[in-house]
Automatic annotation (TrEMBL):
PANTHER family attached to this UniProt entry: ABC TRANSPORTER, ATP-BINDING PROTEIN
Keywords noted in UniProt: ATP-binding, Nucleotide-binding
GO molecular function, one term: ATP hydrolysis activity
PROSITE patterns: ABC_TRANSPORTER_2
One Pfam match: ABC_tran
Protein name, UniProt field: ATP-binding cassette domain-containing protein
Region named Disordered: 308-330
ABC transporter domain residues: 19-241
Biased composition (Basic and acidic residues): 317-330
Length: 330
């Protein structure tokens, strides 16, 4: 079922659309990975495609880049171009599929610089900011995962493209380097570049103009980060004891440091939760807390799918009951 169009999507549609994917499906063997993705990206937008590993984010990015053909659906870039036709206007970093391990970092940069018609000489500055310069003459096969990500990102950002498709650009990077990558992407976005990046790290949500959550092969929610946070059910923080999971939506709680977090079920209140905690001698606090990006990720990754499954099961049971009642009446 298509997701409801939000106010943010309506605004994006009024702007020039750079990428328009409709009902995109892709499977491998007997398994479906994408089951009808609808996604639009406006010119100058920085959109973060979020979801846990294995939900098809990288497969979708590969389809959008023209590296993989979808089984169904349509993908148009810019003024009606296919992903293959639009390659001269896009720059792509697919995780683990870009660099040649037999070449040095510098040779990889030179190879892709010769290959792309819109490549620039900016790689020196980018590599320096990503603290990669001292390792450019080492074979890429000796690179750690984080170093490989920095090289892939340097290759992609060296291109003066209209659209950047970046697969997990902050994967395996430390917090300081993630901030550097965020700064780079915000600079590119500030210059009017369009960026679509995938991520399973809540930290990447903070730089997005819009987030699209992928679950079960579809986009299940998309809006501005602030709007998505506002739409979350009440977030509860528990300190000093273990709260019963049944008091929270989808029977899920999440440990973060010395606290337990979850989403308040409609039939539960804070006093009920506090009364159900075996605290021993600890001082227990149960309170609402403003949701974080980690809360947002946990909700759409773990809680909302369970709620959807429960709703579907209830609907199926109601349909079965109505059918049985009709048969009985006859």
């Amino acid at each position: 079922m298509p997701t409801e169009t939000t106010e943010t999507e309506t605004v994006a549609q009024a702007q020039k659309t750079v990428l328009d994917a409709r009902d995109v499906a892709k499977g491998f063997g007997d398994g479906a990975v994408l089951e009808g993705i609808d996604l639009r990206v406006a010119e100058g937008e920085l959109l973060t495609l979020m979801g846990p590993n294995g939900v098809g984010k990288s497969v979708l990015l590969s389809c959008l880049a023209g590296s993989t053909d979808p089984d169904a659906g349509t993908i148009e870039l810019f003024d009606g171009l296919s992903p293959t036709e639009a390659r001269s206007e896009t720059s792509v970093a697919l995780q683990g599929e870009t660099i040649d391990p037999d070449l040095t970092g510098r040779e990889n940069l030179q190879f892709y610089g010769d290959l792309h018609p819109r490549a620039t000489d900016d790689w020196r500055e980018i590599a320096d900011r990503l603290e990669l310069t001292d390792d450019l003459d080492r074979p890429a096969r000796e690179y750690s995962g984080g170093m490989a990500r920095k090289l892939e990102l340097t290759i992609a950002l060296t291109v003066d493209a209209k659209l950047y498709l970046l697969d997990e650009p902050t994967a395996e990077l430390d917090l300081a380097m993630i901030q550097t990558v965020h700064d780079l992407l915000l600079e590119y976005s500030g210059d009017g570049k369009t960026i679509l990046m995938t991520s399973h790290a809540p930290l990447d949500a903070q730089i997005a103009d819009r987030i699209a959550f992928v679950q079960q092969g579809r986009v299940v929610a998309t809006d501005r980060p602030s709007a998505l946070l506002e739409d979350l059910p009440p977030t509860v923080r528990v300190r000093g004891g273990m709260a019963p999971e049944s008091a929270f939506l989808a029977d899920r709680v999440f440990q973060r440091g010395d606290e337990i977090r979850g989403f308040l079920a409609p039939e539960t209140d804070l006093e009920t939760i506090e009364g159900a905690i075996d605290s021993g001698r600890n001082r227990v606090t149960v309170e609402r807390d403003p949701p974080s990006y980690t809360d947002l990720f946990n909700y759409y990754t773990y809680v909302q799918p369970t709620r959807d499954a429960e709703t579907m099961a209830t609907d199926t049971e109601s349909t079965r009951d109505r059918r049985d009642a009709t048969v009985t009446d006859r």
